[in-house]
Amino acid sequence: MSVIISIIIGFLLLFGAFLSLVTAFGLLRLPDVYTRNHAASKAATLGVMSILLGTFLYFYSEHGHFNSKLLLAIVFIFITAPVAGHLISRAAYHSGVKLWDKSVQDDLKHKKEYEEKARS
């Protein structure tokens, strides 16, 4: 295995581990459900994808083994994780979970008021 590929693999694995660590800190430190969900869906998605890509490159360059399952996992996570995060946030908003006190903007507030007026 060449030195350049080893450096790229090491970078991808360390970057993925770093983003997973950022996700853990975000889940512990952020104030409300929406910002925690943002940290979990964005950073964890990129972290896991980086680790899977580094693993794919390692096995392909070291052993010549092309693993399509790793590529499919990357595509699956890339598509499903942000959508799931969005749906969790929407469900939390519609079930009445409050925003953080220092939140500046509520983009769905007018839509929610309009729907409540239409129901009455």
In brief:
This protein has 120 residues and is mainly alpha-helical. The protein has 4 helices and no strands. The protein has one domain (3-119).
Total count of domains: 1
The coarse overall form would be: elongated
Question: What's the mean pLDDT score?
Answer: 87
Number of strands: 0
Distance between the termini: 69 Å
In this structure, how is the largest beta sheet organized?
none
- Beta-strand residue fraction: under 5%
**How large is the radius of gyration?**
20 Å
Count, helices: 4
Class based on secondary structure composition and strand pairing: mainly alpha
What is the helix content? Answer: over 70%
Q: How do the helices and strands follow one another from N- to C-terminus?
A: HHHH
Low-confidence stretches: none
Subcellular location: Membrane
InterPro entries: PhaG_MnhG_YufB
Membrane topology: Multi-pass membrane protein
Keywords: Antiport, Membrane, Transmembrane, Transmembrane helix, Transport
Structural description of this entry:
The chain is mostly helical. The chain has one domain (3-119). It contains 4 helices and no strands. The chain has helices spanning 3-29, 33-63, 68-94, 109-119. The model has no long low-confidence stretch (mean pLDDT 87). Belongs to the CPA3 antiporters (TC 2.A.63) subunit G family. Keywords: Antiport, Membrane, Transmembrane, Transmembrane helix, Transport. It is found in: Membrane.
